[in-house]
Amino acid sequence: MKNNVTVVILAAGLGTRMKSRKAKVLHEAGGDTLLNHIVRAALQVAEPERIVAVVGHQAAKVQASVKTPGIRFAEQTEQRGTGHAVLCAREDVAAAEGLLLILNGDGPLLRAETLLALVELGSRATGEPTLGGAIVTTRMADPTGYGRIVRDERGMVAAIVEQKAASLEQLNIREINPGLYCFQSELFWRHAGELTTNNPAKEYYLTDMVEILARHGHSILPMPVEDETELLGINTRVELALADKILRARKSRELMLAGVTIENPDSVTIDVDVEVGMDSVLEANVHLRGQTRIGAGCRIGTGSVMRDCDVADEVTILPYVVADQAVVRARASIGPFTRMRLHADAGEDSHIGNFVELKKTKLGQGSKAGHLAYLGDSNIGAGVNIGAGTITCNYDGQKKHTTEIGEGVFVGSNSTLVAPLKIADGAYIAAGSTITTNVEEDALAIGRTRQVDKPGWAKKRRQLTASR
Asked: How much is the pTM?
């Protein structure tokens, strides 16, 4: 089926009702742009090289936002209607045989199943000279603003009449056009030149193609869809919020049906590209964003926020962990109140505890940093203990430097490790030390002054203060 379908996505509009400086299709719902949601659905029916997005406002940014390699672009430099937008893609798609699928770039709730059904219905028109294709329709209690579906005596779509051009009788029609079309490509391009601007808006209406094809004896099959919310086009921030809610509810349901426990589904935020393995548990108010991957048998604690992270199997993430572009390997335990960022990497069976921050740091297998530490630009071997209050001083005011800690090292509490620094295997760092030079294997490094006690000093000080 994919070899027979070409897709044109209309993504050139500004979207003035969004009250935004950026193009409408760049706004996000469910963790991705509106346009990427449509591309994701289109990929179920067409190969990337047969998908063309028509861009206009902020064209370069819109093109850069598309994640899928191979998608092609056509530019509509002048906004002259939906028909004109499709004509802008003519050079890229007119030679393709089979079906021409035309979609709006602002409909993120569209399901791939609906597109597959539309293509299947449109395929019935292939080779049938009396049929020109198929379109999706739906019924709305309030159809204001939508083009009305006018059917002929056989139940076929005879015309789509826009709100501005509709008669009083046509305005009472509740069956509307949400903007999903599947035409026989050869027929469409044969008659596309007959589109005109003879309408109140002085634009080229894509909807006129239905009446044009009917005039040439080619009927259009209707495909009613009951759930009108699936066909919602985003025009305001209110509709954007509704789409976001629906997409996230779908994602939670998808994961639960795949064997993931979500303790409070209404409270979690899970982006569309997130993956979670079987028998993992997501506690309340968890946020999984971007390309995050969670393995099997994990537990993600309340309030944790993870973006673009790779978490292996049987990992425990305790409450209120914040992680960005981090790797957590099998059976590690992280949190509570841990921060991991910029390619932090927690090894197998490692433990990172409360109020510990890792930045560009690799913590080896079985190593521990239990409390109140900052570990930046560090490579830490296996079996290392990082005491509470330890920091790696990685910045000299101009450049970042690396701390290398070998296997089996014990770093005492409240140690300050001034990079660049190498601490060899098996070394001990005495608590409270400031270490500025390399430490050899199995050595004890002490970087602090000798303790001095002055008997009676405190009592004399209190007496002196009282006498004033």
From this structure: 0.91
